[in-house]
Amino acid sequence: MKSLTIFLLVLAPWLANAGHEHPGGGDALVSQFKKIAKALAEDISDLHYVHGLENEQLQSVQLKLPSAVINTPVSSTDEALVLPDGREVDAIHYSGPNARIRFNRARWRAIEASLESRRLLALHEYLGVIEVEKDHYRVSEAILAELAKQAATKKPGLIRSCAELVSKLGQQHRYSKLVLVSDLDCDARNLPEMPPEGYMPGDLDIELDGAGHTIRNLLVGSKAQTVFFALNMIAAPFQVVRKPIRNIRFENLQVFGQFGAAGLTESNYSTIEGVYIDGLISGLWSGGIAITNYGTISSSTLNVKMPRTYSLEYPNAAGTFKGGIAGRNRGLITESTVFGELSGLGRVGGLAGENRGTILGG
Length: 362
Known about the structure:
This protein is of the alpha/beta class. The protein has helices at residues 28-44, 55-71, 105-110, 115-129, 138-151, 162-170; strands spanning 4-7, 21-22, 74-77, 81-82, 88-89, 91-94, 100-104, 157-159, 177-180, 184-185, 207-209, 214-216, 218-221, 226-229, 234-235, 238-241, 245-256, 260-262, 265-268, 271-282, 285-287, 290-293, 296-298, 301-306, 321-323, 326-329, 332-334, 337-342, 347-349, 352-355, 358-360. The strands form 5 sheets. The chain has a 15-stranded parallel sheet that branches. It has a 5-stranded parallel sheet with strand order 15-18-21-25-29, with no helix packed on it. Strands 16-19-22-26-30 form a 5-stranded parallel sheet, with no helix packed on it.
């Protein structure tokens, strides 16, 4: 049986090239920045009122922001960004005919755990491009406060098929959470409209509730029929998980990463509980659920094969970490069990390759 493939290769901090400018084309961080801005523009278009803003000002934002998000070049840099007055900042925007945005990669990564911080930064820079906001954050903060109120009225997105899962992950900002209402077979033939380069779900910023249902035959990585796609060396369904994943099963999950691989995410900052994974996870730096766990992983069971892998591009495999739950644990792992085979060239652990957090009852 063919399996649906997700190819999510994300730019890991330890693979960054210091001192370089990174234009938008193949930069996963720039893709994150643009994706956040695009979702914001869609949400802002639905607003009728923002406390503290004149209606004309809101209408100006609604008119100009979508075009700015599409047309403004965005790049990231490893260099410090300094204003003429000597202040170092996260990002710099330019308006007018040469409108563009540059942001510092290290500072963007430093706020990885907070979607709201990233939304505020991205919105502020684009509002600067359309000359609505300068050094202050008054307009962007007012808009985000109103969006937070509107979020309470959103309804759950119900998932009945693998195609619907892919679609609603791409529009997750429109839902309060995503809920599986049936088992999903992610055989590639169930996605006839899949573009050849695949999809890129990116981060998970709303709750995903499996409601006890099973996702079968999901293929993540560099094999044929790739579905979730990005441009680096780590394979996982999500780059960053900031909201809970609960009560979901994976059968015949296969993950292949040239450098790293994980059953769910590169970085977990939230709660993952009641997850069952059966399958194969292959990568030098890997975790059955997360490559690095900063949050909580609980009440989960894995039956996985995590074989020893080699890479000519990354010969220093002795510096990598592999764990049945997490390659590196900086948070809490509790009441979780791993069955199967784990083998690696670096530090290998049944639950975590390296533990600087807490492990209880595993």
